[in-house]
UniProtKB/TrEMBL annotation:
Any GO CC annotation of this UniProt entry: S-layer
Organism: Halorhabdus utahensis (strain DSM 12940 / JCM 11049 / AX-2)
InterPro entries xref list: PGF_CTERM
Residue ranges of every copy of the PGF-CTERM archaeal protein-sorting signal domain listed in the record: 606-627
Pfam family, one: PGF-CTERM
Keyword entries, A-Z: Signal
Protein name stated in the entry: PGF-CTERM archaeal protein-sorting signal domain-containing protein
Lineage: Archaea, Methanobacteriati, Methanobacteriota, Stenosarchaea group, Halobacteria
Organism domain of life: Archaea
Length: 627
């Protein structure tokens, strides 16, 4: 938003066309060359001050008003048009956005014509991250009428499930199914099945497997008899255990092999594999690997302890099944892992053992923060649950119905934040958002809001942009100048409807002079504008353009880098007129107006980087179009 405000009120107003010479030659970027071109007139005053005038033609129904006062640090502008772009002629709405040093908020609503194929839409999203909690809820329901090829390709798709994580457990269960209207498989008209369950035992693990599938003629020789099948399974499952330093004992529970009429072969087997020694084998392998790492400062005992912590993971439940035919696929799972905190402990030990001083690209502070985050999760018993339920179904042959629900909730979040603070980590950002959208008759309505709180939000954003080379030199220079100007508040209001569109923007800076381009003749002090018929004129006031206005000639003024050959020079004895003065009262009133955007009442919380993204989008759109 500050980019938007300064782009409109700063780059255009304060520098306007003052930088008439080549911007690279002056050490300025194109951003600061302004969008108004060369000044049409310059009025020199007796004391050497001057007023630059820039004229631009307005289309029918267009309006513009600009006010700026550098000393007060105030910028204010309005732009309007009765001619709305044809792409948006059936769109109406309004939006207000406010950016302060530690808060960004935007609230708006919109009504648009419903697309013909969108029979129904309902969206409800909300979420908040603060010191007290971290949660998200989302619901979507949508019907696309006469969806054509999409409905022909898919029948029904559905999935549901949950994922829960704590400091020492990970558990997930769910199912997924898909039905294809057109079969895509060239295999036999049978359902292939894979069922797998794993049990954690005192000696190791026991895996139980049921396998039903087609095999090629090339593979058939390994499955014809029980002995051949047993040998094939051993080569697949027992050999894997041996590679990991353990042992595996396979028991073939059942075996069925047949040749089908289409020339393919079908196997139906059930077996178990009892694994032993795998954990010891893995522990030895991991310990050996840790000792070989030159960047890790670990002893043999340390390496063994770390490796043992990693292999302490316990499988509480592991059930997986998949059934696939020519037209359907069904998958389900139920998995729960315990004692995952042992892996966290191992990771912390690795961090502590890392010889970061000799490791290129490793940030010592980041490693310390990671350790603090992991230990804070353990100390607070942080638990997060994520659930979902979604489906896509075809109705009445061509209508596509999509429904989805997702939610996320965190327990002990406040304890986690407190534990982080105790370890010197303030993650710094709070966020709240909401969005509701729905079809109503022939229209779509939407209402949304977003608030982000963060200490020194503006400064950190523009400092980041100024240092990011991928943003380009112009955006880097603009961001650096804004940051140096110490913005206090920026505001934007936009509205659109049958009568046209209007945008009002304003900003207040503690040190607006810091945004002034260097190597300019004169010091811009403010700006104002007026409209006469279809012509708008921007007046930029500058102090000390020349030393003595009574002694200067037109040739002297034309020799200045701020004045081009096409600019008409008016010397003090050649003109007598008044210019509209900047209306700082209107700018201050606009910026101090109450805004009903709900704040996130927190001091800290995880960051999301959303503001930087919004600023990038807004500024790119502004800079791409001068008027």
């Amino acid at each position: 938003m500050v980019v938007l405000v300064v782009g409109l009120c700063g780059a255009v107003v304060l520098t306007g066309g003052i930088v008439a010479a080549d911007s690279q030659q002056l050490g300025e970027t194109e951003v600061f060359a302004g969008g108004w071109g060369d000044a049409d007139d310059v009025y020199v005053e007796e004391d050497g001050d001057a007023v630059f005038a820039y004229q631009t033609d307005l289309e029918d129904g267009e309006s513009t008003a600009v006010n700026a006062d550098v000393a007060e640090g105030l910028f204010h502008a309005t732009v309007g048009s009765e001619d709305v772009n044809s792409d948006f002629e059936n769109v109406s709405g309004e939006m207000t956005g406010v950016l302060e040093s530690d808060r960004f908020g935007v609230d708006g609503e919109m009504t648009a014509e419903r697309p013909e194929n969108l029979a129904d839409l309902s969206v409800d999203l909300s979420g908040e991250v603060s010191d007290e909690g971290n949660d998200f809820d989302g619901d979507l329901s949508m019907t696309i009428a006469e969806s054509g090829g999409m409905a022909m390709l898919f029948g029904d798709i559905a999935t549901s499930g949950d994922l829960t994580t704590t400091s020492d457990t990970i558990a997930t269960s769910g199912e997924f199914s898909i039905e294809q209207q057109m079969g895509l498989s060239d295999g036999p008209n049978r359902t292939e099945v894979l069922e797998l369950s794993v049990d954690d035992t005192d000696e190791g693990y026991t895996a139980s497997v049921t396998q039903k599938q087609a095999v090629s003629e090339f593979q058939a020789g390994g499955w014809e008899s029980e002995q051949q099948a047993r040998q094939t399974l051993k080569s697949q499952y027992v050999a894997t255990a041996q590679m990991m330093g353990g042992q595996g004992e396979l028991t073939l529970e059942s075996h069925d092999f047949e040749r089908l009429d289409d020339g393919t072969y079908w196997i139906d087997v059930a077996f178990t594999v009892e694994y032993t020694g795998i954990e010891d084998g893995l522990e030895n392998m991991l310990a050996g690997q840790l000792l070989q790492e030159s960047d890790l400062n670990v002893t043999q005992d340390d390496a063994r302890e770390i490796a043992a912590s990693i292999t302490d993971l316990h499988i509480e439940t592991f059930e997986f099944s998949m059934a696939e035919s020519a037209t359907t696929t069904d998958v389900s799972w139920d998995i729960a892992l315990e004692e995952t905190d042992s892996m966290t402990t191992a990771l912390i030990s690795l961090i502590e053992s890392a010889d970061v001083a000799n490791t290129e690209g490793v940030d010592t502070d980041e490693l310390a923060d990671l350790k603090a985050i992991l230990t804070a999760q353990q100390a607070s018993d942080l638990a997060t649950e994520f659930t979902w339920n979604a489906s896509m179904a075809t109705e009445e042959e061509e209508d596509l119905v999509i429904e989805a629900m997702v939610s996320s909730d965190t327990d002990n979040w406040d304890n986690y934040v407190a534990e982080l603070k105790d370890r010197g980590i303030d993650i710094g950002t709070g966020m709240a958002f909401s969005l509701e959208a729905a079809t109503q008759g022939e229209e779509i309505t939407a209402d949304g809001a977003l608030t982000v709180n963060q200490e020194d939000l503006v400064g950190s954003m523009f400092e980041m942009i100024a240092e990011d080379r991928t943003m380009g030199p112009e955006m880097q220079t603009l961001a650096g100048s804004i940051d140096a100007a110490d913005p206090d508040i920026a505001r934007m209001d936009m509205s659109a409807g049958e009568d046209g569109a209007e945008m009002e923007v304003g900003a207040r800076f503690e040190d607006a002079a810091a945004m002034m381009p260097t190597r300019l003749d004169g010091t811009p002090t403010g700006a104002s504008s007026e409209t006469d018929g279809d012509t708008a004129t921007l007046y930029v006031f500058a102090d000390d353009l020349v030393d003595d206005g009574t002694a200067v000639t037109a040739a002297d003024v034309h020799a200045l880098t701020s004045v081009s050959e096409r600019t008409t020079v008016h010397l003090p004895a050649e003109w007598d007129r008044e210019f509209p003065q900047p209306n700082t009262e209107a700018a201050a009133e606009y910026l101090d107006k109450d805004v009903d955007i709900e704040a996130v009442t927190n001091e800290s919380g995880p960051g999301f980087g959303v503001v930087a993204g919004l600023i990038g989008v807004v500024s790119a759109a502004l800079l791409a179009r001068r008027q």
